[in-house]
Amino acid sequence: MKTVTLHNTIEMPQLGFGVWQVEEKDAVPAVTKALETGYRSIDTAAIYGNEKQVGEAIRKSGVARDELFITTKVWNTDQGYENTLKAFETSLDKLGLDYVDLYLIHWPTPEYDEYVETYKALEQLKKDGKVKAIGVCNFDIDHLQRLLDECEIKPAVNQVECHPYLAQNELKDFCRDNGILLEAWSPLMQGGEVLKDNTVQDIAEKHGKTPAQVIIRWHLQNDTVVIPKSITPSRIEENFDVFDFELSVDEMAAINKLDRNERKGPKPSEMNVR
Q1: Phi, psi at 103, each rounded to 5°
Q2: Per-residue confidence (pLDDT) for residue 36, from 0 to 100
Q3: I need a labelling partner for 110 at 20 to 30 A (CA). Which of 71, 84, 269, 270 fits?
Q4: Torsions phi, psi of 66, nearest 5?
Q5: Enzyme catalytic residues
Q6: Are 208 and 238 spatial neighbours (Cβ–Cβ below 8 Å)?
Q7: With the C-alpha atoms ordered 133, 107, 213, 164, is the resulting torsion angle positive or negative?
Q8: Are 171 and 158 contacting, i.e. CB atoms less than 8 angstroms apart?
Q9: What is the rounded distance in angstroms from the CA atom of residue 150 to the CA atom of residue 23?
């Protein structure tokens, strides 16, 4: 497993396992299978409703805690300094852990203008040793810049929707210039049409790989952290089997050209759901 180094020197697996939209009944077997396959990074969130099951799978796995990288997130209704501190303790209790490796703000919800105070709570959790690293999800450049201007600790990670049809190049450049790691959710476009794209399929056939494996490999070679999700055992294995081939410069360029700024999820500047 290749790892990336966050700006605070913490090592993070570049390929992780996401549990967004994984129902409670499926979470324990899915995470168990992921850990058996070799994943060591698990990405959950309070709003997913499966933190308890993630924790259960971790305990049953027998994998040492220091070999794991666990991420969770504070939801929009719990933003604000004190609310965030309480929400974190609730998440920690559900996970059954002493600390988490990465704690993120799920959305900036700019209409409510609480993300700076929320982030300051994350800074306090970091100072208290309850989290190893802190960051954000779905933050645009202007949201990130405000944190850089008004807070002490710069985000280690910005987790955003990213796939070949939404390459996020401008945001990637900003994050790279500021030492912020970009992490891709919905890396396969939620199983969308990018998997049927002729360019992707041709490259997959050349390598004897699936379109999903090619796209995950594209993310990895773009220095992006990627967290594909599946509850199907064979696909959990398939998504992990991406370290035995490499895309050429020309193949990377061909996939880069597919970008058309097409989202499956909401725009961060407009997502104010609570």
Answers
A1: -120, 130
A2: 98
A3: 71
A4: -75, -5
A5: 48
A6: no
A7: negative
A8: yes
A9: 37
pLDDT at 120: 98
Residue 226's DSSP bridge partners are: 15, 184
Answer whether 212's CB lies under 8 Å from 253's CB: no
Q: Report pLDDT digits (tens) over 29-52.
A: 999 999 999 999 999 999 999 999
Mean pLDDT of 220-224: 97
To the question of whether residue 163 is assigned a binding role by annotation, the answer is no
Residue 99, CA distances (Å) to 71, 78, 126, 225 in order = 10, 19, 10, 21
Residue 197: φ, ψ to 5°: -60, 135
